Amino acid sequence: MTTSPEPTATAATAAALPGYTPGTWVIDPVHTEIAFAVRHLGVANVRGRFDEFTGEIVLAENPLESSVTATIQVASVSTAHEQRDNHIRSEEFLHATEFPEMTFRSTGIRPGDGDGFLADGELTVHGVTRPVTLELELIGFGKGYQDRPVAGFTATTQISRKAFGVTGGATGAMLGDSIKITLDVEASLA
To answer: Mean pLDDT, to the nearest integer, of 59-66?
Structure first.
């Protein structure tokens, strides 16, 4: 007797994803973290997060036809150091007064390695839009407050800050160019 292999994301069917529920899912900011890390002086990572954002995940009947949009408020940056946070908001870095939002809009979903997916999209930072790919993992589906359906996702990517025009002035020379972005997302069915 032979057994079938475990279903993977490459099957691209909802049946391969336990609990998969098509629909519009709203990102829950209370249970979601949008975090980043950048190398400082080549020896350590400085970590931070954004505390204000909105987003929506539309899960289609065919998972590969799904989409994601998100908007992040730049001024909500937090690295647990007020002086550094103000510098990141300044003209030398993200220039939050002129570019108050960062946005992501997916342009396609495709199978990734193992059970994962790749979400191709356009990221706009500092007024510059560039293509990025998020490595996406569907954590699962469950029941939240008052039995409301919830879903969990993680996503990671790396970007070049200089490609988005974020130089950092003289301080920028102390920082790596590569920014690692990690998203731990919980969303509720709308």
So the answer is: 95
